[in-house]
Specification:
By secondary structure, the chain is α/β, with parallel strands linked by helices. It has eleven helices and nine strands.
Amino acid sequence: MKPRLPPYFDGLIAAYHHGQVGRFVHLGAWDAPPSEAELAAPGEFERAQERLNDRLLALAELGNGQRVVDVGCGFGGTLAVVDARCLGMALCGINIDARQLAVCQGIRPRTGNTLRWLLADACALPLADASVDRLLCFEAMFHFESRRRFFREAARVLAPGGRLVISDIVLRADPGDPADDVTKRTVVAGFGPWPDFWSADADHRVLAAAAGLACTLEVDATQATLPSHVFTASAGAAAHDPVGSAAAALSGMHRAGRLRYPLMCFVRH
């Protein structure tokens, strides 16, 4: 069965081919709340995306000669950075969208590194047991059929001492808000699939421990990523624009304190 792909992928791919976005497809991070002038500066969002990517890669503690897999690899930006910084690397990007992998094919690894791209489901990784030193999953897990299944797969493919580094978007329901159902429909229409929308099974520490992974570090990047919506959401999203409406709704949840953005590292013992 052909998987359902998020509608916003279409716009991202078109924007990439028109030179409007780069290889990163995640939010950005700021060290301090940016001024209006900073937000208006050319390339500001791309610099913020690079900062968030660097923060996550720092958690991975990369070293030469490692086997590194990026699950939900987008346009390959993260692995391109790893390729440029490290030697003797066996790099692999996994995505469920063949169009994004076609974009990734434009990356040529430096001498001494290998780079391959696999079309696969994150909850059924086509990788051998204990075959990965570093597993990355940046801002993609909320799309997966099950976070719990992904953690089990991560534990299976990681070698002893291997690390899993993630960022995730975790949403919180408000039982007293009659608009919750509308918010969910709006976000899912533009950004779905989002199987566990209200994060009923999204305690990363619990899921990881059940799979045999220990959390070694967690950073709350909720406020650091909040300014991203200046670039990703339009205040005047039209009702006939599902992706724009979804982006505006997600921005509203973030500003209301109902969206959490953790950066986490786990180790396979």
